[in-house]
Amino acid sequence: xxxxxxxxxxxxxxxxxxxxxxxxxxxxxxxxxxxxxxxxxxxxxxxxxxxxxxxxxxxxxxxxxxxxxxxxxxxxxxxxxxxxxxxxx
Length: 89
Hints:
This protein is of the alpha+beta class. The chain is built from three helices and five strands.
């Protein structure tokens, strides 16, 4: 299973400890994570299932390319990092 972790900023808003989740795409892995942590969904994706503008997902230090369908490939040995960008001044 892929290892999924989250930025510390996101942890300030809701519990989302690192976890393991199965799936062959980013979408499949994230759906497994959302099944265990439903409130996390609204922080990361919009009502169409697209990644929110202030969120980035990296697979093994590479930002995913498909922000709409989240169809980037994932293998069991991959590390996924969910990054919530900060804004303001």
